[in-house]
Design brief:
mainly alpha, Annexin V, domain 1, Single alpha-helices involved in coiled-coils or other helix-helix interfaces, 2 domains
Length: about 140
């Protein structure tokens, strides 16, 4: 038998509910909330950080790690994922590709035109899954 409390009716735990809400917040608001929570409950912040991931965090990778991730992600997926990102993240990605590959990717992003947010988010989630797999395999240090 498990020592975990039962979750009647499949209701979300408090942490799961907070994570879901935070995933819909913009970056600056999320960062402000996390800073405020850090003062009150550092353990909660650590748990939230483990569960939260945003595509913008790709920018924080060291160049060799980012280059490895970029090699693992299909170019169509990457182009779609870049459709709704900051210029800073786009620049970080383009600068970690060869000049020609960066130009092609930029052209691919522009050629996509408007996309459904759900498709962009799924592409970003795919990049996140690739990143987590590379971390799990030890190819990228967390």
């Amino acid at each position: 038998m498990s020592d975990k409390p039962k979750n009647p009716g499949g209701l979300k735990t408090g942490v799961e509910a907070v994570v879901e809400m935070m995933q819909h917040m913009d970056g600056p608001s999320r960062e402000k909330l996390m800073a405020n929570l850090q003062e009150r409950d550092p353990h909660l912040v650590a748990e939230l950080e483990k569960r939260l991931w945003t595509f913008e965090e790709v920018r924080k990778l060291e160049p060799p790690d980012l280059q490895l991730l970029l090699r693992e992600v299909p170019s169509k997926t990457l182009a779609l994922a870049l459709r709704k990102t900051s210029d800073e993240l786009k620049q970080a990605i383009f600068s970690n590709l060869s000049k020609r590959a960066g130009q092609v990717l930029q052209e691919d992003v522009m050629a996509l035109g408007p996309q459904k947010l759900s498709k962009v988010e799924e592409a970003q989630a795919e990049v996140g899954r690739k990143l987590k797999a590379l971390i799990a395999s030890g190819k990228i240090a967390k």
